[in-house]
Amino acid sequence: MTGRPLRIALPKGRMMDEALLLFGRVGSEIDAEARDSRRLILPSADGRFEFLPVKSGDVPIYVESGVADAGVVGLDVLEEGQQDVLRPLDLGFGGCMLAVAAPADAAYPLLPGGTMPRVATKYVESARRFFAQKGMQVELIRISGSVELAPLLGLAHWIVDLVQTGRTLAENGLTVVEKVSDSTARLIVNRASHKLRLDEHQRLIADLAGALEKSA
């Protein structure tokens, strides 16, 4: 074992909350004093881990670079970034799907007159692979904010975005026309750290898998 705890990158928000609940079930809840502070590195009370709250898209970057030994992130983020990390465990929570959505009266998958579809999305690489596999030529428009606005304002014909309940789509007059992929939270591990700290990583994976099995 090295001189410091395993560093675990977590995505800020609901997925981080669920991940911390899972770590708590294996005896590694956040130290009470740290929970109420503004510290950027949060130690676990048992001393095994240091949790790093970061933006979702940064989790696999931190892990691939070795700044974090492991992390929790949605499969959608992994598939978009294609970082070279190990993916030993599906954690099962944070379920959603990446989907193509369009206005209820929009044509799909072909537009009238052979018009090339414009597709707005945060997930440009995932969308590019999806449409290429279907043999569809589209113009992809990278949007980082509210993607649902794009069809309403005429910027795009369709969108590719994450869907959980579908409520936001419905409120904006959109409907899912095709699923791209399913997504859940995954445990990811830095390759070098896994080799150097194998026993600790194996224990981490076994503990989390055991907690998930008990709650199934």
TrEMBL record:
A biological-process GO annotation: L-histidine biosynthetic process
Keyword terms, alphabetized: Amino-acid biosynthesis, ATP-binding, Cytoplasm, Glycosyltransferase, Histidine biosynthesis, Nucleotide-binding, Transferase
Enzyme class label: transferase
Keyword set includes Transferase: yes
The protein's annotated pathway: Amino-acid biosynthesis; L-histidine biosynthesis; L-histidine from 5-phospho-alpha-D-ribose 1-diphosphate: step 1/9
E.C. no: 2.4.2.17
Residues covered by the ATP phosphoribosyltransferase catalytic domain: 56-209
Gene Ontology molecular function terms on file: ATP binding; ATP phosphoribosyltransferase activity
Transmembrane segments: none
Primary localization: cytoplasm
Cross-referenced InterPro entries: ATP_PRibTrfase_cat, ATP_PRibTrfase_CS, ATP_PRibTrfase_HisG, ATP_PRibTrfase_HisG_short
UniProt domain comment: Lacks the C-terminal regulatory region which is replaced by HisZ.
Family: Belongs to the ATP phosphoribosyltransferase family. Short subfamily.
Protein name listed in UniProt: ATP phosphoribosyltransferase
Source organism of this protein record: Longimicrobium terrae
